[in-house]
Design a protein that fits this description.
The structure holds two protein chains of two kinds. By secondary structure, chain A is mainly α. Chain A contains twelve helices and no strands. Chain B has helices spanning 3-11, 19-37, 73-83, and strands at 42-49, 52-59, 62-67, 88-90. Classes of the chains: A mainly alpha, B alpha+beta.
């Protein structure tokens, strides 16, 4: 394990943070079985490698600031940091009924790809890009499901989990042209700069900026005006 | 507060309704779906015991790490993310869940490895 720690220092001083997963893959390749089994051994056999446990706990009980910054984030942290934002984006783009599916598909796909994500990637923009594609998939699936049903009963306008305010905002968002709704969500809810919104939507930065501004203007005049009248 | 933040606050407040409950539900669904898809490499939970709060982390094969309070659980998880895989989720014990990391341990049995 001493050599192992040396390795880590060398990697860090040479290239800063390695990609999540890259280190893992190299390590698994180097060691054949991987550290999962080594770690498991320390638990299974109390007499097994003392030096391993010593090394681990030394490293862990004295983390310096730099080390905290260099840490690979667990996917749990990614969900904790970005889950609510992606939820708002999904609600705005696909509406209330399909939000759960869109969010779940987004994070499942993100988790699948996470080990290959470069360490310096903009995680929020990456998640929004995935959410954008998944929202389109979910929307298509819903439209397909909707076709065979004739004279479908009307969905109740409100339920206890969807207060009126909720419904009006969703209705107002739904009336926006798709590009505007997406641009508003990615810029105003996810906080992406127009340049990045343009990368997600395709088209120019100016077009993304315009779509977002037009969308907000329409929302202000329809949804907020209504709210003010009540 | 700049204009973007103000727009976000007053125009989109309705999007935040039920956010905490919804996030709990979605996180539980993600744990289940990731487990089914075979991409949940490590599941963990914490456990309050007489010797403090323990962190229990398990892979498909079984328990890989038990950590005491003083070890700094965040650092333990970060080390696992680097050494094993970053595809780590908190998986609170639920009845009938096969991936709960503490099968047997609490009843005084050795970890199920």
């Amino acid at each position: 394990m001493a050599a192992d720690t040396e390795d880590r220092r060398r990697v860090r001083s040479a290239g800063g943070r390695s990609r999540p997963g890259e280190w893992h893959q190299n390590r698994l390749a180097d060691r054949g079985l991987g550290l999962a089994l080594v770690a498991a051994d320390t638990i299974r056999f109390p007499s097994a490698p003392r030096d391993l446990r010593a090394t681990c706990s030394d490293r862990i009980s004295h983390p310096n600031r730099l080390e905290r910054l260099l840490r690979v984030k667990t996917f749990e942290q990614i969900v904790a940091e970005h889950g609510a934002t992606v939820l708002r984006v999904c609600r705005a783009v696909v509406g209330h009924a399909d939000t759960d599916d869109a969010w779940s598909e987004t994070f499942l796909a993100a988790m699948r790809a996470y080990p290959g994500l470069p360490g310096d990637a903009n995680v929020e923009a990456w998640l929004v890009t995935i959410a954008h594609r998944k929202a389109i998939d979910v929307h298509r699936a819903t439209s397909r499901r909707a076709i065979p049903v004739e004279n479908a009963p009307e969905r109740p306008a409100t339920s206890c989990s969807e207060p009126a305010d909720h419904d009006e905002l969703y209705a107002a968002l739904k009336r926006l042209p798709t590009k505007q709704r997406q641009a508003v969500a990615y810029h105003h809810l996810a906080g992406l700069p127009h340049r990045k919104v343009a990368a997600v939507l395709g088209g120019t930065e100016a077009a993304a900026r315009r779509a977002s501004a037009d969308g907000i203007r329409t929302l202000r005049s329809t949804y907020q005006q209504k709210g003010a009248d009540r | 507060m700049n204009s973007t933040e103000r727009i976000r606050e007053d125009l989109f407040a309705a999007l935040r309704v039920d956010e905490l409950e919804t996030m709990d539900r979605l996180r539980a669904r993600l744990v289940a779906a990731a487990g089914d898809a075979g991409i949940l490499d490590i599941a963990y939970r914490t456990l309050d015991t007489a010797v403090g709060t323990l962190l229990l982390a398990a892979t498909e094969q079984g328990l890989v790490r038990v950590a005491y309070d003083r070890e700094d659980h965040d650092a333990v998880l970060a080390a696992l993310a680097e050494k094993v895989s970053p595809r780590i989720l908190r998986a609170p014990a639920s009845p009938g869940s096969g991936r709960s990391p503490d099968r047997g341990v609490l009843r005084g049995h050795p970890p199920d490895l």
